[in-house]
Amino acid sequence: MLKRPNLWDNVETLLEENDSTREIKNVRPKPSERAKIVQSTLYLPRQVHRQLKEIAFAMDCKMHDLFIEGINHILSKKGYGTVDELAGTGLSKPVTLRD
């Protein structure tokens, strides 16, 4: 009976040959930037999630951009500024909401 090849033997060679992994490494935030970001979970009803997904698709953006836009709206309304102003980062991308 033949032994199946071990995939882990060639992993380093495959990673070196794959150019897309180099791009992914460059996209990761620096450790100092990661320390400034906190992850949060949002629980949404399925239909709300689906609707937000459709809106994001129609606007050619991510759902995250919609969330940041909503957070910016609340922060500005309460007089705190925006996400970028508070964090001093360029994390939020402007999104124009259409009716």
Radius of gyration: 20 Å
Percent helix among the residues?
40-55%
Mean pLDDT: 77
Number of helices: 6
- The helix/strand series, from N terminus to C terminus, equals HHHHHH
| Low confidence ranges | none
Distance between the termini: 65 Å
Characterize the main sheet. none
Question: What is the 3D form?
Answer: elongated
Q: Classify the beta-strand content into a percent band.
A: under 5%
Kindly state the number of beta strands: 0
Sheet/helix structural class: mainly alpha
Explain the layout of strands and helices.
Blueprint: H1 11-17, H2 19-27, H3 31-34, H4 46-58, H5 63-77, H6 83-87
What's a quick, concise take on this entry?
With 99 residues, the chain is mostly helical. Helices cover 54% and strands 0% of the residues.
Question: In words, what does this structure look like?
Answer:
The protein is an all-alpha fold and 99 residues long. The chain has a domain at 43-91. The protein has helices spanning 11-17, 19-27, 31-34, 46-58, 63-77, 83-87. The relative contact order is 0.09.
Task: Write a concise keyword list for the protein shown above.
99 residues, 54% helix
